[in-house]
Write a structure and sequence with these properties.
The protein is an alpha+beta fold. The protein has six helices and 26 strands. It folds into three domains: 51 residues, Complement Module, domain 1, CATH 2.10.70; 119 residues, Complement Module, domain 1 (Ribbon); 175 residues, von Willebrand factor, type A domain (Rossmann fold).
C-alpha cells in the first residue's frame, strides 16, 4: 500500500519480499531509506533483485514481482565455448557451480592453461584460461579469449592490439585493450567477464593487490643487529601517499562500517610494523564528507600515526557533523558502472569485487605478512 500523498511518509511493508531458499536483513527495519539485503548460501545468489530500497512513499525499489518471486538461484559461470582452435566438453548452454569442463586443441595446436576447469561458488572457473596456439613466429603469444568474452584482433606482432568485450549481461573487469610490446609481453592484464553475482576471493585480491604493494615496498634485512623489526625501503618515487575513502551513507549498516574501519586500522598497523611512514588521507563520506585525517598534516609533520589510529577508532557512523586508485567494491549490489571508471588509466587490474566486508580485513592480513613480502639481503 502506497501513501495517499507524496507529502506523507509511509513505512514499507513486508509483502512479497520474502526469498525462497535464503533470508534477508533490513538496515532500518521497514522505515524510509532502509536497505533490504538478500542473503543466499554459498553457490547461490538472490534473483531477480540483490537488494531493495524503501522509498519515501512506502514502496520498494525495485518493486517485488508477484509472478517472479524472489529466490536463490544456482551460481552460473561464463560460457567457456569461446576458446579458439579447440573443443570444450561437455558443450552446454549454461554452466553452473560444480560443473566440470575439459579442453582439447585441434591437431597442430598446443594447449596452454588448464585442461580441466570447475565452476566455483564465486562464479569463476578454476585454473587459468585454456589457449590453443602454435608457433607462428609472432612477437607475442596468443593472449586467448576468457570465458564469456569476444576478442577483436588476431595479429600478435609488435604494436598489434587486441580488444575484448563481454557477451550478454556480463561486464568486463581488467584490460579492454592490450598491446604487444617488443619484449614479447602484452600490456595490461588478462580481462575477465563477470556476472553481477561474480566475486573475488580475499586470496585472489591479496595476490593481485599485494603484488602492487610489493612493487612499492621492498623488505630488506637490516645490518643493524639492534633493530629486530623488518625495514621497508620505498623503492619507487621515495614517497608513499595512501588515500582511503569509505562510504557511510544511510544504506550502510553500522556493523559493516565498524568492520571496514577495523580493516583500515589493520592495514595501517601492518604497514607501520615494517618501519615505513606513509602519508595518509582518510575520508568517510555520505551526503557530507568527514575528513578523519588530512594528508597535508603529514607533509607538515603535524600528526603522528598513533593519533591517526586513535581518531579512526573514535569515529562513529552516527556522526552528524593520476595516482593509482584501487577500488574494493564490497556488498550485495555493487554499482560497477559508477565505480569502475575511477580506475581508468591504472592498467585495468585495480578493481576488485568482494561479497562481504569482513573479507577486506582477511585480504589485508594475507597481503602484508611475513610470508607474502619478499626478503632481500642488503
Amino acid at each position: 500500500t502506497r501513501c495517499p500523498s507524496a507529502e506523507v511518509l509511509c513505512d514499507c511493508t513486508d509483502h512479497d519480499i520474502q526469498i525462497q531458499g535464503g533470508n534477508f536483513t533490513l538496515t532500518k527495519k521497514l522505515e524510509k531509506g532502509s536497505l533490504l539485503i538478500y542473503r543466499c548460501n554459498d553457490g547461490y545468489y538472490p534473483y531477480p533483485a540483490l537488494t531493495r530500497m524503501c522509498q519515501p512513499n512506502g514502496s520498494w525499489k525495485p518493486a517485488p514481482r508477484r509472478f517472479s518471486p524472489q529466490k536463490c538461484k544456482l551460481v552460473e559461470c561464463p560460457d567457456p565455448n569461446v576458446m579458439e582452435n579447440g573443443n570444450v566438453s561437455p558443450p552446454e548452454v549454461q554452466y553452473f557451480v560444480g560443473n566440470e569442463t575439459s579442453y582439447e586443441c585441434y591437431s597442430g595446436y598446443t594447449l596452454r592453461g588448464s585442461s580441466k576447469r570447475i565452476c566455483l561458488p564465486n562464479g569463476k572457473w578454476s585454473g587459468s584460461t585454456p589457449i590453443c596456439s602454435r608457433d607462428s613466429g609472432s612477437a607475442c603469444p596468443d593472449p586467448g579469449v576468457p570465458p564469456g568474452a569476444s576478442r577483436a584482433g588476431n595479429m600478435f606482432g609488435i604494436d598489434d592490439k587486441v580488444r575484448y568485450t563481454c557477451n550478454g549481461e556480463l561486464f568486463l573487469v581488467g584490460s579492454k585493450e592490450r598491446v604487444c610490446l617488443e619484449n614479447g609481453q602484452w600490456t595490461g592484464t588478462e580481462p575477465a567477464c563477470y556476472y553481477k553475482h561474480t566475486f573475488d576471493t580475499p586470496r585472489e585480491v591479496a595476490e593481485s593487490f599485494g603484488g602492487a604493494i610489493k612493487g612499492t615496498l621492498t623488505t630488506t634485512q637490516s645490518l643493524n643487529d639492534t633493530q629486530e623489526g623488518r625495514l621497508i625501503r620505498i623503492s619507487k618515487s621515495g614517497t608513499l601517499n595512501i588515500y582511503i575513502g569509505v562510504d557511510i551513507s544511510e544504506s550502510i549498516e553500522k556493523e559493516d562500517f565498524e568492520k571496514a574501519r577495523d580493516a583500515i586500522i589493520t592495514l595501517i598497523k601492518k604497514i607501520a610494523s615494517f618501519s615505513v611512514s606513509p602519508n595518509y588521507e582518510i575520508v568517510f563520506f555520505s551526503s557530507e564528507i568527514y575528513r578523519v585525517v588530512n594528508i597535508l598534516d603529514f607533509f607538515n609533520a603535524k600528526v603522528e600515526l598513533n593519533k591517526v589510529i586513535e581518531d579512526l577508532e573514535k569515529f562513529k557512523i552516527e556522526s552528524e557533523s593520476t595516482p593509482n586508485i584501487y577500488i574494493f567494491a564490497i556488498g550485495s549490489d555493487i554499482f560497477d558502472d559508477d565505480l569502475q571508471p575511477l580506475t581508468v588509466g591504472t592498467g585495468g587490474n585495480h578493481y576488485f569485487r568482494m561479497s562481504k566486508i569482513v573479507e577486506l580485513k582477511e585480504t589485508f592480513d594475507l597481503i602484508i605478512g611475513e610470508s607474502t613480502l619478499k626478503r632481500e639481503s642488503c
